[in-house]
Amino acid sequence: xxxxxxxxxxxxxxxxxxxxxxxxxxxxxxxxxxxxxxxxxxxxxxxxxxxxxxxxxxxxxxxxxxxxxxxxxxxxxxxxxxxxxxxxxxxxxxxxxxxxxxxxxxxxxxxxxxxxxxxxxxxxxxxxxxxxxxxxxxxxxxxxxxxxxxxxxxxxxxxxxxxxxxxxxxxxxxxxxxxxxxxxxxxxxxxxxxxxxxxxxxxxxxxxxxxxxxxxx
Length: 217
Fold this sequence. Notes:
With 217 residues, the chain is mostly beta strands. It has one domain (2-212): Clam (outer membrane lipoprotein receptor (LolB), chain A). The protein is built from one helix and twelve strands. It has one helix at 106-120, and strands spanning 21-29, 33-44, 47-56, 59-70, 74-86, 89-96, 130-135, 141-156, 159-170, 177-182, 190-196, 202-212. It has a twelve-stranded antiparallel β-sheet with strand order 6-5-4-3-2-1-12-11-10-9-8-7. A hairpin with a 2-residue loop joins strand 8 and strand 9 (159-170).
């Protein structure tokens, strides 16, 4: 699931306004089962929080990135925390601003990427792939390769939106590989995605509901 979450910094172009939201997805993993993934973007005390929570059978995981907006498209990550739980075994992590100084965490980076895909579609094509960096839960900076391709508009719970097809892989490797549908109008929302985590494990998410909070300043 970590490959779903990433960051990007590109030349300046007006980014869409960030609207807090709650997105719910159907989640399935081959050989594991099906469950639900929920993603919230909220605004609190002058900062933004991107929070994801997933559950499949006895497996649960969640993570939160706290950040501020930096210029037209970037973010400044402040904190990153989360945990994963499986059959009584738990693992927790927490990073601060110093740990995230080189690249944003996955949650903060996902929002930065979502705000940047409008201009990115002009440069990051299958013929000219781009790279991006994010910080994982261990504090290690990871590099990903990605491309964006045109895709027909689709209907969503909040209306019809223009979309782009995203293909993303670990830098210099065939796997893991993510195929996703994204929209410049909905920064941070994955409309649907398939993640080939390995030769034998594939995860899928499909957007089921989306609520936009236009009232939050």
